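Reminder to self: tokens first, then the designed residues, so the page reads top to bottom the way the pipeline ran.
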């Protein structure tokens, strides 16, 4: 019966997010891969960067006259399905409806490695990607991209069927079902456990091997009690399992360890450096409009859910609406984000240097 219930739960979950799975052809096949499963994307970035050596890639205040930036330049923008791309939805809608003086073409993809070649070659001017992939591409292109801003803080959560987990200390002696081994989820969880005097593998068992959808399905069926999950799978799990709850927000736990001034920054927007240098005012106008789009999404989750579904960023408006408050969508300029990202990159480097491209980015990485 346990097996049957697990299969039924998995079928239910697949039906809920089938649109995304059909769109993503990669091995994990889900929207949450935009931030969480990065090692294979890093390998793809390394290879594609080596194949594009020739393509060239100032912090600026808002322009004094919007008319100056309403040029014939069509900005090429790429974003990911899931939290990293959700803040772009309103801007996409405004430009497509002719309600913005900016002109842009948008590409929405399911996994980061679908974007790396476009970023490296300069085919896109802006791209919303994981922060560690941005560091990889900066290193592999010799600094031809800049991090314009952080757009997503942590989207990782400890979920529980029950009420026993109220703090990191409560994880001692427990088993956590998780996906994302060898990438950011493992590194962040291991770091936080260690900082809370819990030794991974000894004081707590972390069971890897499933994909996000499978972990969610086992939570829904009741076969898993405690799990590490990202948004939007947290939301889909809660929608299908009444007893499932968010026990710990790892973004909050990160700030308890690192301090309030150093949040967990997992998603960002990068800009081609050569494009930015030639179009300073246009870049400033685009980033200002993008920030306003993010603010609107956070302030209007019901309407934003509809737009997010329409733009193909998530498959269902209701999932997007419920996921927005826990997706930590934000806008922090590149320079303002430098201290928090330096902290994160150092931690990732200590776990695995390849996760950020082999070395810490230089100061010119931050736009």
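Designed residues (367 positions):
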């Amino acid at each position: 019966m346990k097996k049957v219930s697990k299969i039924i739960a998995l079928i239910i979950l697949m039906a809920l997010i089938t649109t995304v799975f059909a769109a993503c052809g990669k091995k994990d096949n889900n929207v949450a891969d935009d931030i969480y499963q990065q090692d294979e994307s890093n390998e793809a970035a390394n290879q594609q960067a080596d194949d594009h050596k020739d393509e060239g890639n100032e912090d600026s205040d808002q322009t004094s006259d919007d008319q100056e930036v309403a040029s014939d330049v069509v900005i090429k923008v790429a974003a990911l399905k899931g939290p990293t791309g959700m803040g772009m939805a309103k801007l996409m809608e405004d430009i497509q409806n002719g309600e913005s003086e900016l002109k842009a073409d948008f590409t929405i993809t399911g996994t980061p490695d679908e974007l790396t070649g476009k970023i490296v070659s300069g085919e896109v001017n802006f791209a919303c990607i994981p922060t560690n992939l941005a560091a990889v591409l900066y290193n592999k292109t010799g600094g031809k991209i800049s991090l314009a801003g952080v757009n997503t803080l942590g989207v990782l959560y400890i979920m529980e069927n029950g009420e026993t987990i109220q703090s990191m200390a409560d994880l001692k002696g427990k088993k956590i079902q998780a996906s994302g081994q060898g990438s950011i989820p493992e590194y962040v969880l291991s770091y936080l456990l260690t900082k809370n005097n819990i030794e991974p593998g000894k004081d707590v068992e972390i069971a890897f091997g499933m994909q996000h959808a499978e972990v969610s399905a086992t939570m829904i069926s009741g076969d898993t009690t405690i799990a590490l999950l990202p948004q939007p799978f947290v939301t889909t799990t809660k929608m299908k399992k009444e007893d499932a709850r968010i026990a710990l927000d790892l973004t909050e736990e990160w700030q308890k360890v690192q301090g309030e001034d150093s949040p967990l920054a997992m998603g960002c927007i990068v800009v081609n450096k050569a494009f930015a240098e030639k179009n300073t005012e246009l870049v400033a106008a685009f980033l200002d409009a993008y920030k306003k789009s993010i603010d609107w999404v956070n302030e209007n989750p019901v309407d934003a859910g509809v737009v997010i579904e329409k733009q193909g960023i998530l498959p269902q408006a209701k999932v997007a609406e419920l996921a927005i408050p826990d997706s930590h969508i934000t806008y922090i300029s590149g320079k303002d984000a430098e201290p928090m990202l330096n902290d994160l990159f150092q931690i990732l480097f200590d776990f695995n240097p390849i996760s950020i491209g082999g070395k810490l980015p230089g100061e010119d990485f931050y736009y």
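Confidence is low (pLDDT under 50) at residues 1-41, 52-70.
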